[in-house]
Design a protein that fits this description.
This is ABC transporter ATP-binding protein. Keywords: ATP-binding, Nucleotide-binding. 33% of the residues lie in helices and 21% in strands. It has 17 helices and 21 strands. The two termini are 35 Å apart. The relative contact order is 0.12. Bound molecules: adenosine-5'-triphosphate. The site of adenosine-5'-triphosphate has 19 residues, from β2, α1 and α14.
């Protein structure tokens, strides 16, 4: 008897069929991957299993018995836990209180603290129980969500892209834990766009396309290309060859430990565990916090507001999509006004709505955003599609400096490759780019130079072809002091490494 059985599940939203007759069996003790491009219907299906969304029709059986799930509370009572892609935490409460409030009332706060400490030790996770959630990076928030779900000792655990903001080592630690949970009989449903992870971790993989099951495979028997092909329905695109050279110095900032310089026509990558100071660095460069020694084209811009900096051509994509990158209840065309106001208003301040609409439609088309129309609200988009929209909105501004945090977080391989190509094309047009990512594969595919942030310190820069993932991995623990910075103005021009296929889909 299966732990969970879904039969012919349908779910429509206005203008969209999110689930179109999905049947699935999830077995105890197995890790079951759900793979599909952005908008394929994975999150909707998982929300149905978790009682957060009601299906239009179809049957759900839990341990053989037909059930109707009316709420997440009912699902949790059965032993179903879910870690969402978007966080459901109270910013003004501590980590401990967030976890305590989300758990069964029979546990005292002290008990929850004890269990939390024990679990973090077992998982090798650093989590300050008393820190306010507001002060945490997305990676740290993700950790809170994961431990909260694990503390309920679930019989079915659903994870929606749990490793998107974890370092490779933290992801490996999570896999060990998930395997252990599975060996103890827990059924796990695992949603990820990372094909390597699915092949390494999962026992079985159901592939969805446009709301339907297209195949069920044993991922260990497939290579990445085969999985990507099943998911996309065609071959994934590859990255173009690198061509451009490093131009003039555009943006610079001097930090206590190193100087960060962005030149025209280059991409500088920032690696590091989320929460190591990347957010503060981005805020300083983008103008959300004033001060520091920030210069654009030799001019001090440290006290300029984000809006003033945008007028000088500096655009950025923050790591939080909902709330900062986009206002959830507003339509996509209204969301263009967040960062593109100057292009969309008259001198007197009147909003040119038709222009906002055209801009939103252009971004939707160019970046293949799956949305019924530009009037759709941001919160109705699937996670990856919203990410494509936000990144597309900034690239569309033709910035001279672009700062991007986690550019392909939650984005499927096809769309990730599209975003990567757009970033490389911007670079080839002379834009200076800073890419903050926890994904080393992504950073090595995109960057000309890499810095690392660890414990709030910035490492020296190193040209990508002069370093390795292992070295950058070691730097992520702060161990770079013997290295001399080569990121300064006198760094020699280097040939670019040979063209590489988009690494997520390399077999
Ligand atoms: N509340 C909603 N209202 C309207 N449409 C919605 C809503 N939630 C999801 N959709 C639509 O349903 C479709 C499936 O979305 P879903 O979030 O399930 O996709 P997904 O496979 O999880 O994508 P991703 O990988 O980007 O997270 C998308 O077209 C999405 O825009």
């Amino acid at each position: 008897m299966s732990r969970l059985e879904l039969h012919d599940i349908h779910k429509h939203y206005p203008n969209v069929i999110a689930n179109d007759g999905i049947s699935l069996r999830v077995e105890a003790g197995r890790i079951h991957a759900l793979l599909g491009e952005n908008g394929a219907g994975k999150s909707t299906l998982m929300k149905i299993i978790y009682g957060a969304v009601q299906p239009d029709s179809g049957t759900i059986r839990w341990k053989g018995e037909a059930i109707t799930l009316r709420s997440p509370a009912q699902a949790r009572a059965l032993g179903i836990a879910m870690v969402f892609q978007h966080f459901s935490l109270f910013d003004s409460l501590s980590v401990l209180d967030n976890i305590w409030l989300g758990l069964s009332p029979q546990w005292s706060r002290a008990e929850v603290r004890q269990r939390l400490t024990a679990l973090c030790q077992r998982l090798k996770l650093t989590l300050d129980a008393d820190a306010l959630v507001d002060t945490l990076s997305v990676g740290e928030r993700q950790r809170v969500e994961i431990v909260r779900a694990l503390l309920t000792e679930p019989e079915l655990l659903i994870l929606d892209e749990p490793t998107s903001v974890l370092t490779p080592q933290a992801a490996q630690d999570l896999f060990v834990l998930l395997r252990q949970l599975a060996s103890e009989g827990c059924a796990i449903v695992y949603i990820s766009h990372k094909l390597d992870e699915i092949r390494q971790l999962c026992d079985v993989c159901t592939v969805l396309r446009a709301g339907r099951v297209v195949d069920e495979v044993i991922p260990a028997d497939c290579d990445n290309d085969a999985l990507a092909r099943l998911m996309l329905g065609n071959d994934p695109p590859t990255l173009p060859p690198r061509q451009s050279g490093r131009g003039d110095l555009r943006l610079s900032v001097t930090t206590p430990t190193a100087r960060l310089e962005l030149h025209a026509g280059e991409i500088v990558g920032i690696a590091g565990v989320s929460g190591s100071g990347q957010k503060a660095l981005m805020a300083q460069l983008a103008g959300e916090t004033a001060g520091g020694a920030v210069q654009l084209d030799g001019r001090d811009i440290a006290r300029m507001s984000p809006q003033q900096r945008r007028r000088l051509g500096i655009h950025w994509v923050p790591e939080e999509r909902l709330g900062r990158g986009a206002v959830p209840p507003l339509s996509l065309h209204d969301n263009t006004l967040l960062t593109r106001r100057d292009d969309l208003t008259t001198r007197q301040g009147w909003i040119l709505r038709h222009k906002a609409l055209t801009l939103a439609q252009r971004v939707i088309k160019t970046f293949g955003v799956k949305a019924p129309s530009a009037s759709t609200s941001a919160q109705q988009l699937s996670g990856g599609n919203l990410q494509k929209f936000i990144v597309g909105r900034e690239i569309d501004a033709a910035p001279s400096v672009l700062l991007v945090s986690q550019p392909t977080w939650g984005v499927d391989v096809g769309a990730a490759s599209h975003i990567h190509r757009a970033l490389l094309a911007l670079r080839d047009q002379g834009c200076a780019l800073l890419v903050v990512s926890e994904d080393l594969t992504e950073l090595f595919a995109l960057s000309d130079r890499i810095h690392v942030m660890a414990n709030g310190r910035l490492s020296p820069g190193v040209a990508c072809q002069d370093t390795t993932m292992t070295q950058i991995g070691a730097w992520m623990s702060g161990l770079w002091d013997s290295h001399r910075d080569d990121g300064a103005d006198d760094a020699p021009q280097r040939p670019h490494p040979p063209m590489k296929k988009f690494p997520h889909v390399d077999a």
